[in-house]
Amino acid sequence: MGTEPVTTQTTRITQTQPSEAAGPQTIEAGVVDLDVAYRESNIQELLDDLDRELVGLKPVKTRIREIAAQLLVARLREQVGLSGEHPTLHMSFTGRPGTGKTTVAMRMSRILHRLGYVRRGHLVVATRDDLVGQYIGHTAPKTRDMLKKAMGGVLFIDEAYYLYRPENERDYGQESIEILLQAMENQRDDLVVILAGYKDRMDTFFQSNPGFHSRIAHHIDFPDYTLEELMQIAQLILRQQMYTFDEESQRAFAEYLNLRIQMPHFSNARSVRNAIDRCKLRQANRLVHQGGVIPKEELARIDASDIRQSRVFRGTLDASDE
Question: What gap in Å lies between CA 266 and CA 275, rounded to an integer?
């Protein structure tokens, strides 16, 4: 990511295509205009998008803003001849499913692109099945193929701890780990790796694989949503899909969430979306059975009965019913 040399004259660094970030910025005789640099990096737009897309997660959003500021300043330091070691950009996102890790990773890839740390700014999501083969000679090409797809952007490895299975002597995960570690070190100017998963399992994974831990610069924990935040997420989903709760159905959904949180396999925002999908299914079934002429508002309204039919209220839950 070359930049023009700084001279005693005002140097204007022009962004000729999206991948040539972090500018333009004005650098004048040893003076950097941070306001101009921040505005013209366009990262504020991405941070605002993150605020709109994700309810809550204040500590996560604060950390992302801090990282973005640090990377902007690092880029400006480089432009005025204060360049040091290239910042380590690999990250770890920990938390339960449905807490926004993939969404934040997508925004992070775009921030890195805008600031000129990656060429393309795309996100490639991978799991163990995408990286580890089932027989000798299968793992290396699979892992290298995923790395090739992610070059110039971010490789997001979900449930990364499944790469390491010490109980199985014939497991090929260790081979994938070694290739990933090598790429994280040797190609860090063109690739950012984000490892994700449950916090306790990721802690164990890092203890067993210190090479990963030493290459991770930012560890970000994604907290579970509160009941109030889950209700906000539900309202956001309903607005996007042009459905509504009335007062009674809103109370019923809050009761539903209070019960569902305490049951196994709760996935935060993902479970909220799944529950609303089931409510819509029950609403459609109710309306068709009811028949007759109905007002437009009834096509949008979720009734409390559409919610209370869930098995959650009976203390049971299976894979087909949120």
Answer: 11
Q: Say if CB 201 and CB 110 are below 8 A apart.
A: no
| C-alpha 211 chain-centroid distance | 23
Q: Write the pLDDT tens digit of every residue in 151-179.
A: 999 999 999 999 988 777 678 889 999 99
The distance of Cα 5 from the centroid of its chain, to the nearest Å, equals: 35
pTM here is 0.82
Give the model confidence (pLDDT) of 83-100 as tens digits.
777 788 999 999 999 999
Q: What is the 3 state secondary structure string of 29-83? A: CCEECHHHHHHHHCHHHHHHHHHHHCCCCHHHHHHHHHHHHHHHHHHHHHHCCCC
Helices 101-114/58-79 angle, 10° precision: 20
